[in-house]
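Researcher: Here's the sequence for the chain we discussed earlier.
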Amino acid sequence: MTSYGVALTETGGRPGRLNGAHHRFALNAFMVVVIGHWAEHLTQAYQIWVLGWPVPQARGVLGLAYPWLVTSEWLHYGYALVMLVGLWMLRPGFTGRSRGWWTAALAIQFWHHIEHLLLLLQAQTGHFLFGRPVPTSLLQLVLPRVELHLFYNTVVFLPMVVAMYLHLRPSPAEQRLMACSCRPAAARA
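Model: Thanks. This is the structure I predict for it:
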């Protein structure tokens, strides 16, 4: 049990409350955060490609009210870390095919987190990679930052969606392995 009163696992490796009785709620709460982040990126893309705003002025919704948010590497790194921790903590609740897809999202998010860590370290030290005038991630050498982060969010989100779809529609064999609140009611009886 953690100091926050949320058991990650019980003895014998069986899922605790987070990946047991509270798994559906935790997944829903996590998805609210993920979709809120998506809304910011999609709003920024709309501002750039539909409204024709210059990239520095296209800040999403929150960035219009709080411009420093968009330029804060701490905020971007913090979100990448929240995503990584959320994917890792919720993974034990997944079984069968859904676990493979969730693990794929976790692996991709791990790399996305590394890219944000590189950006944060550069912003904090003032030493920028590749002779660039601003913090630059590795794949930013190939894609501009806005497009790159739309790409990252897409390649993390799609396996999450597949994982959740499969998790909420398990095969009979997967239902027997599930120990979380997402298990269909017929399988709990």
